[in-house]
Sequence to fold (900 residues):
Amino acid sequence: MKIKPRTFSDYATIGFPAGMLMVFFVIPFGIMIAVSFFQRVQGAFYEPAFVFDNYARFLTSFFGGILGFSIGLAALVAVVSVLLAFPFTYILTRMARRTQVVWLVFLLSVLSLSEVLIGFGWSTLLSRTAGISNLLVAVGILDKPMSLSPSFGAVMTGMVYQTFPYTVLVLFPALSRLDPSLVEVARTLGSGPVRSFLNVVVPALRNSIVSTLIMVFVFALGCYLLPQLLGKPSHWTLSVLITDQAIYQSNMPFAAAMAVFLVLVSLSLVAISLLYGKKENAA
Amino acid sequence: MINTFILRLFLGAIALFMAAPLAVVAGVSFNERKSLSFPPEGFSLDWYAQIFTEDSWRSALFNSVGVAVGASSLAVVVAFPLAWFLWRFHAPWARIVQVLGLAPFILPPVITALGFLSFWTTAGAYGQAWTVVISHGIFFVTLPLVTLTLGFEAVDDSLVEAAATMGADDRTILRTIILPLILPYIISGMAFAFVLSLNEYIVAYMAVGFTVETLPIKIFNSLRYGYTPTMASVTVLFVAIAVVVFGLIARFGDLPRLLGAWRHDDDS
Amino acid sequence: MSGLVFDSIVKKFGEFTAVHETSLTIPQGKFVCLLGPSGCGKTTLLRMIAGLEAATAGRILLDGDDVTRIPTHKRDFGMVFQNLALFPHLTVGENIAYPLRIRGVSKADCLAAVKRLLDLVQLPDMAGRPVSKLSGGQKQRVAIARALALEPKLFLLDEPLSALDAKLRESMQIELKQLQQKLGITTIVVTHDQREAMTMADLVVVMSQGKVHQVAPPVEIYRKPKDAFVADFIGSTNLISGRISGSGKLAVAGGTLLADDLPATGDVTVSVRPENIRVTAGRGDSTPGCLAGEVSYIRDLGASIEMYLSVAGQQITAITTPSDRPDIAAGDAVWLHFPKDACVVLGDA
Fold:
């Protein structure tokens, strides 16, 4: 029953949201792109110009190192997250509704926590005075408490913690729509639960897995605080650098340039993952 | 059975992993002394009281709640006509607007935050309180947009056709048939946006960080300048709010459905 | 001119023609069934009456007025959908009162109308029930009551009984017919079930692949099918090829048949219903109207006996009752008697 819009009020319905998004999303982006070409002025913000200086800094080894580390870290986090979340979400979608809802409420609550709170939680948990090590000392396993952060492991743990609920929710629709009879057939043919999971469920959803990996990768790339809170300066990622440059170094143009770069990378990855998702629906 | 045991172990490990930092923070929030130690020494609810009694925390709380209410309302007000239009009309060009609606949330928050920083600075409104309401409202538009799109999809076309055969025009159908059926999705979209806005740090910071202090901003500042257990009690409060909000949605609505599941008996 | 008229109606979806140019008149006050296999265009035709599909060409006239371009919500009809489409968020009474409420009818008048309609469909005192707590048959009746709330000129039903179980379906067919006769409202029902059409309809419109094959009362459709499709779709039949010889005789494999309304010459197909063929034991040569054959197989179904016979290589089926059963068995030679009025010469299908 879909018809073409006819009257003015028909078009006005989409006009309002389109207008809002244009003004408050597209324009800010446009300005940010413009700023990336501006000249940074010491002591002030920046002055309008058109220079490539900011982008030229991408070519330094310093930047290259950070870029490489960011991508590597995000990829690792995505892989670990999906490895854990995929079997978990599969189990989740087979649960009784009541239990499912309890888990979902729990995961949604964790998902809603911002990086600040997660960072605070994990830095506490890994600290010398109020963390796991204290518990282990109290129980007698450790001699004296120690701080487990800052370290690469701490950054990884914190980031996986943050991405895990997101990964579950991204996988949820596809896994809950999976036809249970596929696995049932495998079981009747003699395949144990783990084997039928590996041989039936994983291949059936491989496009979902790939597109989820990409989505989580983009999500992990966006972590701006955890690497800073839980890691050493060598663990800083692109997003941390952007935040740092924008706020503390007052170098908006450079921050903007990096942000533009990050946008381009994220958008192309999201587009790829959508294409993968479409392929799976068509299959 | 070994399999069930391994299953339980796996689920237990995940649960422990998810709950651990929260448990520790909760423990710390009850600590009697103003220090970061676990297991807690002594028990005190002082740090919870401080959220409401101490001026700076209380005003941060009000700021957070105020922004969250405004932003989530704005998000729904923008998302609804868009979702309705996409469902009702055949207009391929409208997909662009849909992508614009999904984009803010898919991109890393740093980018959106930076965009707003440049925008408000250029507009000369940097630092004014209402800018963060708009910033959050647009940033979180995706949430009600997604839930509303699902909601419209779930409306049976034949219901709309039946209402038309009974003499209802578009506006009447919207008012009498669609709105009542979509209401749970409106509410859940708004609730998601509300909870996320409460918690959100970077966009708020870059928009109004120096003038308006929301709770997450205050916590971050406290992280840098000095620890107080009130940070922990605020975290616990946020988790509690989230659990209550999502719990209510689950109680009155079909949470799995809202998150994209459908079951085979849905085809009747 | 009252009633519903399709004037050269065509419906295309892109390249696909769902309804080829069709002109059809549905007299006022009659119960009409659009009958055909799935994909024949019957539902599309119904939806065009409702305005849910726009005609690609042609006009639709109701009581002389051209309604082709009028939007759905301004047309005057009530419709029952295949999945019933009861509003899940409203009670039974609110569902039925919906068309009245949106026209501003007062609450009191609505209540009275709902009561009247519920009595009409034999569901008294159900007004407060939520829709989810109804059985299939009850939902069916509520959908009917709702469609009739505005006392419309036309009553449209799209496969209304397909979701019901067999026994309920049969009793509902009779109820629907009685309801229509009581109200005298022009009713159009889409169905793929020929028994349903034969039970309820005053007029049957037989369709396939977007074309109307025949419009006639049920008995006429059965006894005098126009073409092979109609003959085969309604009930079962034997389709026998034949040739008209120069002397006006109808020659078929194995002999000659007698029939009325023979065309002058040419190849024809003759339809003969199994229950009209009389089978007797015996051997010999064929005579006009009587063919020699052999029994292939006999099926005793209890209430009827099916005989599968072979006549000059062609398979013919005959049906008889147990009391009239001839004393024959597989392999026997038999006579097949074809009464003249049972042989229907078909037009080209």
Observations:
- The two ends of chain C are 31 Å apart (CA to CA).
- Chain C has two domains: 4-228, 238-346.
